[in-house]
Amino acid sequence: MTTPHVHEPVFLTGDEFSIPTFRLLDPDGCLREGATAPQLSRDHARRIYRAMLATRVLDERMMAAQRQGRLSFYMQCTGEEAAVIGATAALDDADMIMAQYREQGALVYRGFTFDEFMNQLFGNELDYGKGRQMPVHYGSRKLHYMTISSPLATQIPQATGYAYGQKLAEDGHCTITFFGEGAASEGDFHAALNMASVHAVPVIFFCRNNGYAISTPAVEQFAADGIAPRAFGYHMHVIRVDGNDILAVYEATRQARRIAVENNQPVLIEAMTYRLAAHSSSDDPSGYRSKSEEQIWHDQDPLLRMQKWMLGQQWWSEEEEKELQESLRREVLETMKRAEKRPPPPLDSLVSEVYAEVTPSLQNQFDQLKRHIRKYPDAYPRGARSLDPEVAVDSNDQGER
Ligand SMILES: Cc1ncc(C[n+]2csc(CCOP(=O)(O)OP(=O)(O)O)c2C)c(N)n1
Ligand SMILES: [Mg+2]
Q1: 3-state secondary structure string, 8-19?
Q2: Which pLDDT band, with edges at 50, 70 and 90, does 119 fall under?
Q3: φ, ψ for residue 272 (rounded to 5)?
């Protein structure tokens, strides 16, 4: 690109142009005038809608379970189902997903079962992570969903790296990484976009701009017009989309995937949405935002918007809605009860599968732990007391050192 020379100083701020928002559906579920619906079959639309409803039901029940004291922690996707599931539905099921923590809808869409969710949430013996992570840190190798890690934005440069590998392998796949607008304040975000652009890799950066980073509203996070304009600094394709409009998110991501896979170009998508629920089970939004603000966004509920569209298409009915809601609620309760009853992972999983072999120092710590449990069995959960009988209890051992 050549830069024209001027004879007067010209300062630009980015206000010279505005980034439009791509929207196809109105909140009442009708296609906007002049808009064309994406090519989406009835079966595909039903798969998407079921995943949205299943995510909503799962979130409601598990938040209630947390309030009952059955679960230590939970995070809801509520209000952002169209953004997450619409994007996932536009990908190939074998494309890699690197998510933040609020994207369980992507897993639901790909077929992660309620049993698999529950095993992770309760950290029982069937949890793939062996109870080593907090609830909601899911992962599935089979479903190409990288395990969640809590430190914000780490997944973004990892996605660039993963997609670079996909480019080298020429396997026709791409990576999508989901993150909040808050996480986009991390340096990792910028490093990831720059690397992706310079090395021309097939990665989709999907920002869920849901208005808040815990209690900090977007207006206190950045001065510019959202996250989208940052793409220009890296010479990257970018689109802003109504994140509560499933059809628009689907179509934007479908086309972004084409750019990524066919041209080996990264794309930034900024989905404008709203976190309808609390940040997590540890948060109370009434301290930092008004009920009237929340109401405005309840009226934009992405689930209801798609439901209305589906009913209008005659691809869904009130009876099917009722039936599915009931069966999902039943299934969530049944799987939760099953997972709660299962024992925790075996004690030695604390040290096994950390390194190829258990190192002497880990073994030493583990032996001390076992002696401690023998000495103070009542201080440990039942599952922890399944001890190796060969470990002698040293009566002089004070346990904690
Ligand atoms: C590096 C780092 N800093 C701070 C935190 C604490 N923290 C967890 S979530 C969060 C807010 C993130 O907001 P956003 O990225 O917008 O995602 P949202 O929760 O809105 O989906 C913060 C500050 C963290 N997990 N990691
Ligand atoms: Mg946010």
Answers
A1: CCCCCCCCCCCC
A2: very high
A3: -85, 115
Segment 8-18 mean pLDDT: 92
* Residue with tokens 């990665």, as numbered in its chain: 203
Contact 66, 88 (CB under 8 A): no
Mutate to test the pocket of ligand 1, among 149, 152, 178, 189 (most ligand atoms within 8 A of CB): 152
What six digits make up the tokens of 79?
């209000």
336 and 350, same domain (yes or no): no
What type of residue is 288?
Answer: Y
On whether residue 3 sits in a domain, the answer given is no
Ligand 1, atom 17, residue with closest C-alpha = 180
How many structural domains compose the chain? 2
Which domain covers residue 329, as residue numbers? 21-341
On whether residue 2 sits in a domain, the answer given is no
Total-model pTM:
0.94
Decide which of 322, 341, 360 is a domain's last residue: 341
Q: Whose CA is nearest to atom 4 of ligand 1?
A: 152
Specify burial of residue 3 (Cβ count, 10 A radius: 0-12, 13-18, 19+): exposed
Q: How far apart are CA 86 and CA 49, in angstroms?
A: 9
**From start to end of 181-276, where are the E strands?**
203-209, 212-213, 216-217, 237-242, 267-272
16 is a domain residue: no
